[in-house]
Design brief:
Number of domains of chain A: 1
Strand content of chain A: 35-45%
Number of helices of chain A: 3
Structural class of chain A: alpha+beta
CATH superfamily of chain A: Nucleoside Triphosphate Pyrophosphohydrolase
Helix content of chain A: 10-25%
CATH topology of chain A: Nucleoside Triphosphate Pyrophosphohydrolase
CATH architecture of chain A: Alpha-Beta Complex
Largest interface: A-B, 34 and 34 residues
CATH class of chain A: Alpha Beta
Radius of gyration of chain A: 15 Å
Number of strands of chain A: 7
Oligomer: homodimer
Chain lengths: ~140, ~140
């Protein structure tokens, strides 16, 4: 039976903008590319808890998970690395970004601008989904 | 690095009711228990495509995926079986249920009644989330 690595992504929304970060040149995969907060699920943690851990590790921000918005499968580099990726819509709560070694720059940009950035192409579907959902849901919507 | 089995679930909604099925007595895990459509992701397919394949295999229904609503981690029986589970909100399109060997009975029941059924406890969070989202979204909402 097939097993997978599980990747997690966080679209962190703050006043209509989202957080993007530039991957360190030391990364084995996609160095120097702009991305959102991403990371790998560890055994024993739920995916939503996993992405909150990654947000803490990579930004020190306090955030909350609203919901998963998109799931994908791809081979990360080679067929030996089958990966399922879960992107979460998250909401900024508090704090200012303090980057780890994994990134060299960060920006808060409008979702519409993120959709124009080809380096963020992997995350465009998740962004589009959040933009489609957001107008329908009350401000601060969460599953509580 | 940790790898996982990836389970998929479908809450298929039809006129305010959802489809539940009784697992066959031949199942190694949770025989005779009521559940929703579930299955295992296979290499090379996206999770949303995977759950549509499982719906076809287990019910022959035509359905569409609206969105992932909940993700979980658990050990399926033993620690050798770490599993990430993704539950999808799906919408019935067409057809009548034709069960496979995996199930012996099926019912369409109101979501509120499903929430009262302890055999469906694993899926209560996903059901609650759909019930929280549904009133806000236009009928037939999809990401297109």
């Amino acid at each position: 039976m097939d097993q997978f690595y599980v990747g997690l992504g966080a679209v962190i929304v703050r006043d209509g903008k989202i957080l993007i970060l530039k991957r360190s040149p030391d990364k084995d995969f996609a160095p120097n590319r702009w991305e959102i907060v991403t990371g790998r699920l560890e055994r024993g943690e739920g995916p939503a808890a996993g992405i909150l851990r990654e947000i803490e590790e990579e930004t020190k921000l306090k955030a909350e998970v609203i919901m998963p918005v998109n799931t994908e499968f791809f081979y990360r580099g080679s067929e030996e690395f089958p990966m399922v990726f879960i992107n979460f819509w998250c909401s900024y709560i508090d704090g200012e970004v303090e980057m780890s070694w994994e990134h060299t720059e960060y920006q808060w940009i409008f979702m519409q601008d993120a959709l124009q950035n080809p380096e963020l192409k992997t995350f465009h579907e998740s962004l589009s989904r959040i933009m489609a959902l957001k107008p329908h849901l009350p401000d601060g919507f969460s599953f509580g």
